[in-house]
Amino acid sequence: MHSRARTSRRILTTLAAMAAAAGAQAAAAQSYMSQAFIPGGEESLSIDLGGILNQFNTSLRLDGQTTRGTDINLENNGLKKNLSSFEAALAWRFLSRHRIDAQYFTAKRSGSRDYTGEIDIGGTPFPVGANVFASSKDDFLLADYRYSFAKDPQYEVAAGIGFYGGKFTYDLNATGNGGTVQTTYNRSVSTTVPLPLLALTFDWYPDRQWKFGAQFEGLKAKVSDVDGHAYVIGATAEYMLVRNFGLGMRYMYTDVGADVTKSDFNGNLAWKMNSVSLFGQLLF
Length: 284
Description:
This protein is mostly beta strands. Helices cover 11% and strands 68% of the residues. The two termini are 53 Å apart. The model has no long low-confidence stretch (mean pLDDT 89).
């Protein structure tokens, strides 16, 4: 009898624990699916995950020690002009008027072309008819700190300082025939473009479900062996379906240009991009 009583108590205890756990999960799910939306400008953390469609316009020039290389438009060299990839963004509001933001995506492309004129790559001249294969990997990182100097329940205006940390990697393989002599060039070059930014942003909260935003960030500066500029213009629209989850769309235009004088990258790159992002947003 005592054994049966102890077994019954254990069963009841286990059932009670399972019921409590189920109740906690149901409460969490109810809170997550709640229609009690977070007021605009009062969130503490937002995480955006989705896809980005980019339209590129990229030019690359590699100079020799005493010669200027040929400007190569990579899209005209067979690299895709339009490409989609994964994108992630995060915004942390650690105080009511203070935010830190970060956005990242990467793109990989490759292509080749036969040239009808003479070209020079990294100090190596190629006669008419050279074939150039190029591949590129671009990593885009944008981070900034913003302070909202004007804020009320319906709008927010902020200024801040930011950082553009793009990394550009290129593999070039060129072959040309001048008479009986064949000329080849095989090289992988890579450079980071760490440039500071000044930022101005505007957010509008017409109600607790909708948010519209606009941003401008940019600066021209020389940092060590990189002399260039970075300009970013963007606009966003976000709609919360439930308290903690919504959908959004972002448009962004980026213009980056830099003269680089590193030992493993001596030349110029110009990188322009139009992009549209569609993402899901977690809001807390």
